Inverse folding.
């Protein structure tokens, strides 16, 4: 099967490497079809496309849109988008809009928990201040010696019920799918196993997503266990969704899964790239 890696991040959102560095690493790792999917931002696409062309790597323009669905944050990946399409560009601008304010509130909460200077500290880790996010705060907390790793920060901070968590309203499911489709892309539910939904909730998400014109679901991702590969392969087959594969790579020292190293999709699913 084609070594496709259709989910990863550069320093244009909360990854560590530049778009060109991610392209070179993907190629070196044997990736044959690659999408850069920065959070809520398409600014890295031109550099990624150019670098991919230079190293002879097939490139797909992508994005990972933050949405609020049923009170939870869910991520929707768009693949094969046109990064210049006005509906998509304007929509993503509006999603990014609240991030700096949220960051200030997160910093105020951390200060109350005895950790001052988090806003400035996190900002130093953000290649793109517009895209200030929890990962940048996590890197600041590691740098300050509060926890030894980003993964450990996310156990004790920045998540629901822990210091530094600030609820936020992102785009709607309908907006994300509509923007992606308007720009010619294919919408994919990102790492469905991460949301803690029971079968009924997941079924409701898949149904609404399909009705809106969503086409795919991530089956093999760095966020899933091997058991979950099978669970979501079953859901893809039963619902008629196309299956996607992506590492969700953020950086060499932070990600458990490197670019292009995941197992292939389980048998019986149709890859999201089947007709590309
Ligand atoms: P934000 O969009 O600012 O809320 O940040 C979300 C990002 O935080 C995700 O894309 C991940 O990169 C990171 N993140 C969230 N939860 C965890 C976790 N448990 N471990 C590591 N990174 C996480
Ligand atoms: Mn991230
Ligand atoms: Mn995600
Ligand atoms: Mn991601």
């Amino acid at each position: 099967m084609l070594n496709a890696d259709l989910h990863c991040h550069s320093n244009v959102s909360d990854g560590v490497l530049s778009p060109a560095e991610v392209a070179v690493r993907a190629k070196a790792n044997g990736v044959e079809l690659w999408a850069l999917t920065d959070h809520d931002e398409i600014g890295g696409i031109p550099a990624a496309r150019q670098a991919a062309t230079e190293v002879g790597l097939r490139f797909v323009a992508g994005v990972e849109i933050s949405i609020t669905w049923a009170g939870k944050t869910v991520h929707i990946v768009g693949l094969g988008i046109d990064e210049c399409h006005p509906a998509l560009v304007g929509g993503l601008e509006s999603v990014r809009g609240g991030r700096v304010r949220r960051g200030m509130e997160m910093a105020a909460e951390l200060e109350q928990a005895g950790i001052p200077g988090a806003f400035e500290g996190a900002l130093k880790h953000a290649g793109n201040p517009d895209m200030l996010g929890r990962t940048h705060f996590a890197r600041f907390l590691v740098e300050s010696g509060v926890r030894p790793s980003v993964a450990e920060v996310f156990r004790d901070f920045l998540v629901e019920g822990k210091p530094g968590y600030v609820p936020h309203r992102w785009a709607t499911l309908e907006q994300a799918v509509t923007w992606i489709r308007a720009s010619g892309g294919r919408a994919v539910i990102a790492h469905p196993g991460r949301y803690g939904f029971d079968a009924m909730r997941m079924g409701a998400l898949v149904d609404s997503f399909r009705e809106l014109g969503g086409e795919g679901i991530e089956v093999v991702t760095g966020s899933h266990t091997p058991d979950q590969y099978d669970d979501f392969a079953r859901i893809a087959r039963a619902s008629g969704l196309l299956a996607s594969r992506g590492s969700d790579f953020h950086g060499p020292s932070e990600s458990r899964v490197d670019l292009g190293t995941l197992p292939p999709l389980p048998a019986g699913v149709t890859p999201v790239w089947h007709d590309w």
Remarks:
- The first strand starts at residue 4 and ends at 5.
- The chain has a mean pLDDT of 97.
- Residues 64, 75, 190-191 surround manganese (II) ion (ligand 3) (CB under 6 Å).
- Strands lie at 4-5, 33-36, 58-69, 72-79, 186-189, 216-221, 242-246.
